[in-house]
Amino acid sequence: MLAFSAHAEDVRVAFVAHEKLPSVEQLVEKTTSLLNVGSELRLLNEPPAAGWQSYSAVVLVGPQALEAWSFNDSPAAVAVFVSRDAVAAYRQQLASALYLEPPLKRQVAMAKSILGHDRPLGVLVQDKSQWKNSGLSAMPLQQSLVTPYFVDQYDNLNRALLDLLKNSHALVGTYDTELYSSTNIKNILITAYRQNKPLIGPSSAYIKAGALATTYSDIDDVAHRLSEILLTGLKEQVWPDADYNPYFKVRYNQQVGRSLNLLLPDADALAAQLAKGEREH
Question: What PANTHER family does the record point to (predicted)?
Answer without folding.
Answer: ABC TRANSPORTER, SUBSTRATE-BINDING LIPOPROTEIN, ABC TRANSPORTER, SUBSTRATE-BINDING LIPOPROTEIN-RELATED
